[in-house]
Design brief:
By secondary structure, this protein is mainly β. Helices cover 3% and strands 61% of the residues. The chain has two helices and 16 strands. The chain has helices at residues 28-31, 199-202; strands at 17-19, 57-65, 68-73, 84-87, 94-107, 110-128, 131-133, 136-137, 143-162, 170-191, 203-207, 210-226, 229-240, 242-255, 259-272, 278-293. Strands 2-5-6-9-10-12-13-14-15-16 form a ten-stranded antiparallel β-barrel.
Length: 294
């Protein structure tokens, strides 16, 4: 989503189960990964008065996002074999590549926004005991080498309608769709004494490719604080090919003649339907971005 930017009239200027702990921090490289799907939705400010129809106004944003990751992935260790459960928050340690950006446009009370993020992240851990089998803890002599990766694209597209408000305050209702295309993969090598676990299950790998589309509805608002400072708020919720997806954001912006700089805290969550490999996934953390307007 792209964040509400200010009208010129007011501003001169993620069968193996990989589970991550929602609050666990990831390395700095990974943290710059999951691009900003949200803050752009709030970078296009508006006044309580609707701008005149006919004059399109645009905001182009670039963002950095520093989240922790939570989630789970499920796949058999071998055909008909047991399930491996892994704490992905202790495996993911870095970002390989990412791209993020958004475009926001308004004409009178009507407008649209779109934002896009590509991420490629992962990590490996040797001799790990941060796993279970069929969700049962393993014995003291058992350990595993784990390698987990995720590639994905999150794309949001929505229309927005600006509500009449008191002067200086703005609020938009929005409706549209969000797409999440993801490719998780897990490789494992289990050593040590483990009764009932055959050789075919001790070493293996699993991967999947899935694309889900969901309809979303939500709202975003901007409230002036002091001079060029504004409070930014955003929330949306949706469903469709996933059970549920939702996100929320709160932050502040500082306006310049060319646009604004924004800082916020954002949470994005997905609860996927079976029988996909990924069961649920979440991103939670701070973000910062810059928006240029014309």
């Amino acid at each position: 989503p792209s964040s509400p930017t200010s009208d010129k009239s007011n501003h001169p200027l993620p069968r193996a189960v990989v589970r991550a702990r929602p609050g666990g921090p990831c390395a700095a490289g990974w943290r710059l990964a999951a691009a900003a799907v949200l803050l752009p939705a709030v970078a296009h400010a508006q006044s309580g008065e609707a701008p005149s129809a006919g004059a399109w106004r645009y905001g182009l944003s670039v963002y950095g996002y520093l989240p922790s990751i939570g989630g789970s992935t499920s796949t058999p260790m071998a055909q008909g074999g047991p399930t491996l459960n892994v704490d992905a928050g202790k495996v993911v340690d870095g970002l390989r590549f990412t791209f993020m950006g958004s475009l926001d446009a308004h004409n009178g009370r009507y407008g649209f926004f779109t934002d896009f993020i590509y991420l490629d992240l992962g990590g490996a851990k040797q001799g790990s005991r941060d796993f279970t089998i069929n969700r049962v803890p393993v014995s003291g002599s058992t350990a595993a080498n784990l390698d987990w990766d995720l590639r994905g694209v999150v794309w949001t597209l929505a229309g927005q309608y600006r509500l009449p408000t008191t002067p200086g305050v703005s609020m938009d209702l929005l409706a549209g769709a969000r797409m999440f295309s993801l490719k998780p993969s897990l490789r494992w090598n289990i050593q040590g004494s483990l009764e009932g676990l055959g050789a075919a299950s001790r070493i293996g790998e699993a991967s999947d490719r899935e694309t889900v589309w969901d309809g979303i509805v939500g709202a975003k608002a901007r409230v002036p604080l002091a001079d060029r400072w504004s409070l930014l708020l955003y929330a949306d919720v949706g469903t469709g090919q996933s059970k549920l997806t939702w996100q929320a954001m709160g932050g502040v912006s500082y306006a310049f003649a060319w646009g604004e700089i924004s800082g916020a805290w954002r949470y994005l969550s997905y609860d996927f339907k079976s029988p996909g490999m990924v069961e649920d996934l979440s991103f939670n953390g701070p973000m910062i971005g810059a928006t240029v307007r014309w």
